[in-house]
Amino acid sequence: MTDEMILQELEGLAEQLDIALNRVDLKGRPGGLCVIKGERRFILDRTLDVKSQVEVLSKAFAKLPLDDVFLKPAVRDIIDNNDEPWV
Known about the structure:
The chain is α+β, with helices and mostly antiparallel strands. It has helices spanning 3-16, 50-61, 73-80; strands spanning 20-24, 31-36, 39-45. It has one domain (3-78). The radius of gyration is 12 Å and the shape is globular.
C-alpha cells in the first residue's frame, strides 16, 4: 500500500471511531490525539507530509483498543509497529 492509501485508511478508521480530524497550523509540532469538551480529536499540523501524517496517526491509534476493529493487515502492521512514544 502507498502512504496515501494508508493515510486514507487511517482517516477512515478515525471516522469509524468517531474521532474528528483537524489540520491546523501547529508551527512545526506534529500534533496528536486529544479530548476537547469530551470529544476525541486528532489535531495535525497542516504542513505535515503524508508519511508524517501516517506516523502521527498510527502512533496515536497504537494507544487505543483496536482488537475488535477490522483493519487491513498492512494498516494493522503499521499501527502495531508505531507504538513507541514520541522522543
